[in-house]
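Morning!

This is the sequence you dropped in the shared folder:
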Amino acid sequence: MILCCFIWTGYTLYLQSGVLAQKKSELETLQQETAVLQQKREELTYEASRLNDQDYLAELARKRIYFTKPGESIYVIPEE
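The structure's back. Tokens below.
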């Protein structure tokens, strides 16, 4: 009876060690994803804070939609 109890305990520990290893792997993956998402969040927060700056908004308008000041001309050079 004691031998059966030891065998059952050993088998259960063996199965649990496999599950534990899988969960550790999943945890590491999720921690890496969390770090990447945290970095992205910080970048977006910084970008959002810069949108309150009028000079930055003017720079974005000039780059993205070719906004010009009165009397200015923009020449677009095609990329190769």
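Headline: DSSP finds two helices and no strands in the chain.

More detail when I'm at my desk.
O.
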